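Sequence, structure tokens quoted for completeness.
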Amino acid sequence: MRQKLGDSVEIMKERIEDMGMGSGLRNTIVAVVIVYLLFAGVLGYLWSSEPEVFDVRQHANSLAEEMGIEPVVGFTTSVTLMHVAETMLDKPGGYLSNDVFLPGLWLDNVPRWEYGVLVQVRDLSRALRKDFSRSQSQSTQDKDLEIAEPQFHFDNQSWAVPSSESEYRRGIKAMLNYSKRLADPAEDKSQFYARADNLNQWLLDVETRLGSLSQRLSASVGKRRLNTDLAGDTAARQSTANADDQEVKTPFLEIDDVFYEARGASWALLHILKAVEVDFRIILEKKNALVSLRQIIRELEGTQEPIWSPMILNDSGFGLFANHSLVMASYVSRANAGISDLRALLTRG
């Protein structure tokens, strides 16, 4: 950011000189620009802070008390999804992915963090609409979840009318209506089915997401990999052929982006899994899988440790300096393996 400040000031000086302005006016304009850029730099530093982890059970109970209702099965999961999305929008600096002015225009780590959170919100909202709220494949979809899911899938970089924030807040409002109807005995069409098969289906999406993040994080150092795309199935085919041995490496300028995307996804997921522990507790205890879920949460909590370095370092695997991407990949990989084991436990009788 320091380099960007210097470049911006020099460019401004050159443009003012080309316009032939007097020295007094020129100096005033340059001073104003420098003050503005310094202010934007300080503001950008403050906006780069990430939200703290919150207590999902306490938040759900407080919201239920505020609404004058008793929490029911599914309430904690639905309001946790809602609060995760609200935190993404209302954190210091607000939602930055669609900013077109300074300092948001300079910041790229926070938007990647937001995108990681948003992907988890989208996946869970889809699972709520098509699985958790329906008893079988022929069941009708919930009217509020039909609104919420497409709202969260709106373009994350739209700043004009409609803006990303306004569309996501419509999704949050629909989630709030769904949560209220869940606890209303008169609204028997609003349901949340805490079943092992529903949970297993959503966990499959989580496993896929974490697997992809783990691979991208590990590719920060670059390594040669054998092609295993069709391994295990002699009849398998693919549209175009790939090399049997190829170099896989995340581009240098994208390494910190992948890191913060993984950090945001992990932040959102650990809250959602804590909510799952509440709503699926009976199922998890019956499958003797509660401790497995808690271990996954423990691994994801490790991804939220404070970053003491002023920048994300990515030396070679056993190099002189740290590689933050590989550390993050370690936590994400163990969480991914835990998800796979948890899914296996849920399929057993």
Remarks:
- Confidence is low (pLDDT under 50) at residues 1-5.
